[in-house]
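hey so u asked for the seq, here:
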Amino acid sequence: MRPLTSEDPRAVGPYRTLVRLGAGGMGVVYLARSAGGALAAVKVIRAEHAADPGFRARFRREAEAAARITGPWVVPVLGADTEAPEPWLATAYVPGPSLGEAVGAGGPLPTATVRALGSRLADALASVHAAGLIHRDVKPGNVLLALDGPRLIDFGIARHEGASALTATGAVIGTPGYLAPEQASAGPLGPPCDVFSLGCVLVYAATGRGPFGEGGGAGALFRTVHEDPDLTEVPPGLASLITDCLAKDPAARPTAIQVRDAVAAGGRDARDGEDPAGPHGAYPAGTRDPRESLTRWGAPDPHDTPLIPWHMPAGLSASVAERAAAALALPDPDPLPVTPAAPGPAGSGPGGPTRRRLSTRRGLLTAGAAGAVVLAGGSTATWLALRKGGTGGRPAGSGTTPTYTIGLHADLGGPGRATGLAHRRGAQLAVADHNAREDKAFRLALRTEDDAGDPAAALRAAGRLAEDPSVVAVLGPTGDVLREDVVQRYGAARLATVVVAAGSSRVGTGTGLRLCLTRPLDRMLAPGLIGFLAANRPSARVLLVEDTADDGLGAETGRLFRSAPPAGTTLVDHPLARGGAGFGAAARKAVGGRADAVVYAGGDASRAARLATALAAEGFTGDRLAAGPALGPAFLDGAGGAADGWIFAEAYADPAALPSARAFTAAHRKRFGAPPATWAAEAYDAVGLIARAAGTTSASGEVRHGIGGRLVRTEHRGIVRTLAFDASTRQVRVPDGIFLHRIERGRPRFLGPYGDVRAE
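ran it, C-alpha cells below
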C-alpha cells in the first residue's frame, strides 16, 4: 500500500479512494471504500488510453464480458463506468499476498499445494475462456492467495479471442518469462496462450523460478520462443502435464478444463515420485494433443471434476489477517465538499449513515478472502494509537512526561516478512506494557521503516530513522545477515542499533561501536550441541558430518567440535562433498562405525534433510544434531518422518513454553489472535533493554548519544532470558542464549536452555 498523491482522485464513482495498491502502464489500482463500507480494488484507466476511441470501445466490451465471468477463483467485478473521462473497473478486494510474494518469502510451495493451485487456476481460466476472453497476463503477481485458494486478478489487458499479440506501436502485451511464444511474435491469440502462462506459473510455484531463466525483457522472450523450458526441479507427477502446457505449438496444449481435470486426477491417484501418467510418462504414440488423450490421466467428466483440497501455504492465515487488519485500520477519507441538496429522509444528513460507516465496514471486508476474517476492534484501535504516536520526542498529551521513540527497522514486505512482523508485534506489546506502568519516567513510541529485504532500501530506511531526532535507538534490521553499510549509517548518526535475529554479520571489527547483538550468531551455537552430548547419554563415538558446501557455518561448527569435544568422546570426521552424492555413504559410516550420535555441521536445511533421510533408511537410531539455519521448512518438508528426533541448537525460544513469558503469550494471543512467532519475545526483551538503558542515561538532550554506551553495560532480566554483555567485546554472554528444540511429529518442540536439557 502507498499513500495517495496529490494527483490521485479522492473519489471514483461511488468509491472513496484510500491508498494506492499498484500502478502500471494502463492505469492505477486503488484500495477504495464504498458508501456502505465495503472494500474494493478500483482500477482507473489512464486518460491517454481513454482518449483512444478504439481502446474505449474494447474496454467497454471487455468490462461487460468480465462482469459475466463467474467462479470461485476469479475476483468478481463489483462495478464499472466505461464512459467516464477516465474509465474504471471495481473488483472485490482480497487481503492476501500474491503468489510471487508468498514464494519469495517462503520458497517453493509443497507439491500438494502446487496441485491445488493448478486445479483452481485452471478452473478460473476455464471461466474466462467460456466468456469469450483470454487473460493474456497470467503470472505470479496476478494470483492472490486467499484462505481457501487462489484468486486470478487483473483483467486490464484481457482481449477477445483472435486479437493480435501486439499493440499498434509494436509493444508486447504481457510479462516476459510468462507469456506464450505467439504473444512474443504477433501471432493470433487464443485460450492456449493462457494455458502456456499457467504452466510457467506452476513451474514458479514448484521451484521458485520461471521455466525460462531469470530476468525479463528480450532475453526471456528469446528463450521462450526458441529454447526448451527448464523443468529440472519440477515434481515428477507434474512434469509431464506442464511440459504439454509449455508446448511451442498452441494446438498441442491442453485446454484449461483438461488441465484442471488432469491435475485433479493426478492428485488423487499419483504416489510420491511417480508420474500419474503412468510408467511411460508420454502421450500415446502418434498423439501429442492432450485433448485427444486425456483418458490416460484417468480424468472424470470435465464438467464434474472435484478439486483437490486446498493445502494452505505456511504463514498464509497470518498474512491474510495482517493485511485485513491494515486495510480495516485505514482512517475514513476526508469528507468531500458538500453541495446543497434537497432535504432527505431523517437520519441521512450529518451524524447519520456516515457516523456508522466505521462499524459497518468491519463486517464487509470481502467474501473473496475465504469467509470472514475476524478482527478484534480493540487490537486495531491500539495499533492505530501506536501508529499515530510513532513520532515521539515530545510530551505525551498535556503532561510533561517526555516521549522517546524507538525506530523499528524491519523487512515487512519482502522475503523476511515473517521475522519483521514478529519483531513489530513484540515491540508493540513492549511499548504498550512500558507505557501502562504508573512509575514510568518517560513514555515510549514506535516508528517503523520497512526495507522489504532490499539492500538499497535498507540504507534509505536507515537514513530516515537516523535523520529523525526523536529516535533514541533502533531495533533491527531484522534480516538474516547484518550488513556493515547499514551499521555504519547508524553509527555516523551516533544512533544505537539493537539487533535481535541476524544469524551472521558482515560488520568488521571496530565498526559497530553502537551496535548491540542480543543473540549469539549461528557460528556460536555449537556449544549447545556439545553440552547436550556431554550431559546426556555420554557418546563414545560421534560422527561429525562437515558439509564442505558450507564453508562458513559448517567449517566453524567443525572447528568448535574438534577443539572442544565432549569428554571421553571419539570424534570421527566425515566431510560431505558438494553436490548430491555422499549422504548414503555418511549414513552407512554412522551405522557401520557404531556411532552414538551424528552431528551435521552445516546450515543448508535441504541438505540436512537429505542426511536425515539417508540415516533413517540405514536404520540409525542414535542422537542426530544440527544448529542454526539447518532447521527450516526445507528440512521439515524434505525429511518428512525422518526429521523426528533431531535436536537443533537455536538462538530463539518458544515463549509459549516458558513460564516467564506466560503473560506475554496471553497478551499476544489476545491482541493478534495468534501465538507469538519466532523472535517476537526476543524483540519484546530488546525494547525492555533499550528502555532500561534509556532510564540510566542523562535526559538533558543526550539520551540518543549516550544510550549506545549504556546498552552493553546494562543487565536486563527479560521474559526469555537475562540479557548481559561483555562490555569490552560488546558480545552477549552465550551460556543462557542457546536453546534446544527437538523435532516431534514433524514440528519443533522447545526443550529449553541447553544447560537445562536432559535426555528423555
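The first helix runs from residue 47 to 50. The CA atoms of residues 266 and 453 lie 37 Å apart.
lmk if thats what u needed
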